[in-house]
Amino acid sequence: MLSPQLYRRAIPAGARVSRWQAPDGWALRRFDWPSDGGRGGLLFQTGRGDVFEKYLETLAYWHGQGWSVTAVDWRGQGGSGRLCADPLVGHCDAFEPWLDDLAAFWTGWAAQVEGPRVLVGHSMGGHLTLRALAEGRVAADAAVLVAPMLGLRSPVGNWAGERVARLMARTGDPARAAWDSNEIPTARTSRMALLTHDQARYDDELWWYAAKPELRLGPPSWRWLAEAFASTRLLARDPRLAEMRTPLLMLLAEADRLVDPRAALRIAARLPDVQVVRFGKEARHEILREADAVRGPALDAIDRFLQVRAPARQVA
C-alpha cells in the first residue's frame, strides 16, 4: 500500500471530484474514492471554511483500511459556491440548509454503500453530524466527532456572545465579516498556533489555497456567528440526545481555542452510547492534521472503535 503522505498535495488517481445537486438545485462539490476492500462507506464532513483537500492524507489512510471514502464541501464554502457577495466571508442565514443537504446526500449515498455506513465530522461538521443524528435526519451505523463544535469559545460567554452577534447582524449588513482575519477575533497568535503543531501539514493547506485560490474562505459573518451560537444552544437543550442509539466516538482537544471541549463533555455525559478520547496541550483544534504523536493515536482510536461498533460484514 502506498503511503498516505503521497496524497497530501494530489487528488488520487482512483478518486473522482464531481458535483451533487441538492434538492433545491444548489451544486455541491463532492469527492469519492471507491474501494473494493469491503469495509463499507465512510462519509467525512469538514469544519467551517474547510475543504476536503486538507484531509487527503487522512482520507487516504481510511481508504487503505478498505473504506470507500466520500467527502462533500458544505454549501457556501470550498468548491460549493458562496452565500454572500464577498467570496472570502463564511456566511449563512441559518444552519438548517446544511442539515437538509446532509440528510438528502446521506439518503442517496447510503443506498449505494455495501457494508457499514459511517459518518465522521470535524468541528462544525461534527456539530452538524450530531444534530442530524439527534433529529433523525441520518441513520449511521456509527459516527465519529472530531473536535466537534458543540460550544464556541467566547470571551463574553455564549449568552452574551449570541446577543452581541444578533445585534451586530441587525445593525448593519449581516453578511459582513465579524472580524478581519484569522480564526478568532483579536488573535495575538498565528493561525497555525490555533490549528496544529505540525508545520508541514499546515503548509499543505496553504499549498492548496495557492493552487486553487477560489477555495479559500476567511472569517465568518456576524449572521453565521449568531446562528452558530443559536444552533449549539438548541443542540445542548435537545432531549433527543438522551435517546440516541448511534454509537459515537468523540475526540477532544482540551487545549482547543476555537471550540469549547467542556461543552462537548457536558453533551457526552447525556449520550447513552459514547466513547470520549481526550488530548491535552499536545493537541490543537485540527486533531487529524496534528503531529504524528497526536494524529497516530487518534486514528488508532477511530480504527478500534469502528472495528467493534461498525465491523465489516461477513460475505456469505
From TrEMBL:
It comes from the Bacteria. Residues 42-292 form the Serine aminopeptidase S33 domain. SUPFAM superfamilies: alpha/beta-Hydrolases. Keywords: Hydrolase. One of its GO terms (molecular function) is hydrolase activity. InterPro entries: AB_hydrolase_fold, Hydrolase_4, MAG_DAG_Lipase. Coiled coil: none annotated. PANTHER family: PHOSPHOLIPASE-RELATED. This is Alpha/beta hydrolase. It comes from Sphingomonas aracearum. The lineage of its organism: Bacteria, Pseudomonadati, Pseudomonadota, Alphaproteobacteria, Sphingomonadales.
